[in-house]
Design a protein that fits this description.
heterodimer; A: 339 residues; alpha/beta; D-Maltodextrin-Binding Protein, domain 2; three-stranded parallel β-sheet; 14 helices; 16% strand; globular; B: 327 residues; mainly alpha; MetI-like fold; three-stranded antiparallel β-sheet; two-stranded antiparallel ribbon; flat
Chain lengths: 339, 327
């Protein structure tokens, strides 16, 4: 019962902890020499360990990018796998420094829960997966269906909202463990499985006996901007995480990759010179080494590289860029200018 | 002063006052520190969220519930679900446990051995694993469209057991409400959900193994001479068990039985692993949507303490009733 442990730890943490100090997270991370990063228990493409225990994924790359910016070494990360329920208490109580666990940015979490979101690393939406042989082609056909859903997310509420708005009824089956939920769904206990569309693609690719028997319905019933989050109260730490993400997107905007970044050090483009620390200033402002963005691009890559490697064409998920394309290609990925 | 210090009564009183004072102070400091730290981290506090709209649905409920009801009502639904499964679990585990406990003492070799095998295998496997097995069994039943249909209006599938029910909504006389398959699921009638069935089966079978041993111990605690005396009075085997053995055995059985009843109530939150919406499952969702873990966990703790104390009080009262009255 890891969940109960974590809740107990969170409660005990709140009971016993001393007052938080401004700048505390950044200084503490520097002092201990690594970043404690909260990630998913195992979601293919976002954060999952391989058979040697090496973590990879789109969210994992954010952790690595921040480590590259702070320490110049993307491997200075320790991962804490967290369930949906554990993640917020783990961040609030200081057990992790950074939460990169496909977490939706919502008003409640931003305010009442004491978190700060940096910037989305994946724009997602909640969808439905059904068996092809069910003959359902649209979420509007799901009146009266039984729907399997994970607890501890905005998912349950979105689901209820969607069915209420469309005057349809449904029965939820809420199971805490991913594996139990998926096996209940694949055994036919539910007509549909509802989660973020990217997760459904991951579950279909990773756990269905025959992925072609299952389809994801076209409707997305919610906005799920998945964003890394940090504790409130340390603006410097928030900035470092946020700009590490922007550096990856900006690198893609400028056409930089881990392979081409060395050659780009001689680029005449002043924007690239500022990004890579050839022209000093950005690093000092953030409180990290001037080569911070160079280290990120060299060791982790641009956002585009990370996307293709983890969830795009180069992966089993084969997700389209869609909303996650650069703004110049009709997507929402837009880096603030690093100057 | 020195004479006061050497007064045993005064010293005892002083120590007690000091200890109580220290405990109260520690508790007060913990509460105060929690509130200060939650405020410092910008986390909302208080029970105000209970009055807000829950916004999520619950699959089964004794009372009417819709997503537009409040968190308080959602938690009440969870509490009632916990009480239903615990209450039924207590009754069925007692019946099954008593039967198996008596069977283990049976003169019949096969019946006795079967009971022994049951007890030793069931009570040595963790309950959580047993629940997964039960849930696996019920979800491996045929899908709804191919449901087993042994009697008119009765369907058994991996959506649960559906039986005809009575519809009271049409006035004084109830109308027989026969379920039928419409769209994805069965409509009408009464449904026993797979989650509820798996949880009830798991709790019953697991706890019955412990109760069987308690019953056996209670019966063996009655001296053999009692049976022999009853036999010489010409009572039958059934009469002996009912009139002589059980009334005396109950005195030994009731106190440990109370612990098992408490265990059923306290094991019911394992429901979360197989999707039955008990109090802990519902409060989990509430905690996640509101982010108020401290209040949510505290509420669940208080409620479970209440359930346990009530159950204890009830069993203590019953224990007094069956206790040996010495003259």
């Amino acid at each position: 019962m890891g969940r109960l442990h974590m809740l107990a730890a969170a409660v005990a943490g709140a009971l016993l902890a001393g007052p938080a100090l401004a700048g505390a997270t950044f200084d503490a991370v520097k002092a201990k020499g690594f970043i404690q990063c909260g990630v998913n228990l195992g979601l293919y493409g976002f954060s999952a360990p391989d058979d040697k225990g090496n973590w990879s994924g789109l969210d994992v790359d954010v952790c690595r990018a921040v480590a590259a910016a702070v320490f110049g070494d993307a491997s200075k990360v320790k991962f804490t796998p967290l369930s949906a329920q554990q993640r917020l208490p783990a961040l609030q109580s200081g057990e992790v420094d950074l939460l990169a666990r496909n977490t939706t940015w919502t008003l409640t979490r931003d305010t009442a829960n004491g978190l700060d979101f940096t910037t989305p690393d994946y724009y997602d939406g909640q969808g439905f997966m059904v068996a092809k042989k069910l003959g359902v082609r649209s979420a509007k056909d799901l009146n009266g269906a039984t729907v399997c859903v994970l607890p501890g997310t905005t998912t349950e509420q979105n689901l209820a909202d969607y069915f209420r708005a469309n005057k349809m009824s449904f029965k939820p089956v809420v199971i805490e463990k991913n594996e139990e939920l998926n096996s209940a769904f694949f055994s036919g206990r539910c007509d549909a499985l509802s989660s973020d569309a990217s997760q459904l693609a991951g579950i279909r690719a990773g756990q269905a006996a025959n992925p072609d028997d299952w389809m994801i319905l076209p409707e997305l019933i919610s906005k799920e901007p998945l964003s890394p989050a940090v504790r409130q109260g340390d603006p410097q730490w928030t900035d470092v995480v946020r700009w590490s993400q922007y550096a990856m997107v900006y690198a893609e905007e400028k056409g930089l990759t881990s392979a081409s970044v060395d050659a780009a050090l001689k680029s005449p483009d002043p924007d690239v010179q500022r990004l890579l620390g050839v022209t000093a200033g950005n690093g000092k402002a953030l409180g990290v080494d001037e080569k911070w963005a160079y280290a990120i691009i060299k060791q982790v890559g641009s956002y585009g590289e990370s996307f293709e490697r983890n969830v795009g064409k180069g992966s089993r998920l084969k997700l389209e860029r869609g909303l996650n394309a650069l703004y110049t290609h009709g997507g929402l990925m837009y880096a603030m200018p690093p100057r | 002063m020195a004479s006061l210090w050497s007064n045993l009564r005064f010293r005892g009183l002083l120590y007690q006052v000091l200890v109580v004072g220290a405990v109260v102070a520690l508790g007060g400091w913990l509460v105060h520190n929690t509130l200060v730290n939650l405020a410092a981290r910008g986390i909302a506090t208080g029970l105000g969220f209970l009055g807000r709209e829950a916004g999520f649905d619950i699959s089964e409920s004794v009372i009417a519930f819709s997503p537009s009801d409040t968190y308080a009502r959602a938690l009440l639904v969870g509490l009632l679900n916990t009480l239903v499964v615990s209450g039924l679990g207590i009754v069925s585990a007692t019946v099954l446990g008593t039967l198996i406990g008596v069977a283990r003492l049976s003169g019949n070799w096969l019946v006795g051995r079967l009971s022994t095998v049951y007890i030793e295998s069931i009570r040595n496997v963790p309950l959580l694993l047993q629940l997964f097995v039960w849930y696996g069994v019920v979800t491996s039943l045929p899908v709804a469209r191919l449901a087993l249909h042994p009697l008119p209006g009765v369907f058994l599938s991996n959506r649960g057991l559906v039986i005809p029910g009575l519809d009271w909504s049409q006035g004084w006389l109830p109308i027989l409400d026969i379920p039928h398959l419409a769209g994805f699921n069965f409509v009408g009638g009464l449904t026993l959900s797979p989650e509820f069935a798996a949880l009830l089966a798991g709790l019953t079978v697991y706890t019955a193994a412990f109760i069987a041993e308690i019953v056996r111990a209670g019966i063996l605690a009655v001296p053999k001479g009692q049976t022999e005396a009853a036999l010489s009075l010409g009572l039958s085997r059934g009469q002996i068990l009912r009139l002589v053995i059980l009334p005396q055995a109950l005195r030994v059985i009731v106190p440990p039985l109370t612990s098992q009843y408490l265990n059923i109530a306290k094991n019911s939150p394992l429901a979360i692993a197989i999707g039955y919406p008990d109090l802990v499952a519902v409060s989990n969702t509430a905690i996640n949507q509101t982010g108020q873990a401290v209040e949510g966990v505290a509420l669940v703790m208080v409620v479970f303490l209440g359930i346990s104390l009530a159950l204890s009080a009830l069993m203590n009262w019953y224990n007094k009733r069956v206790a040996l009255v010495t003259r």
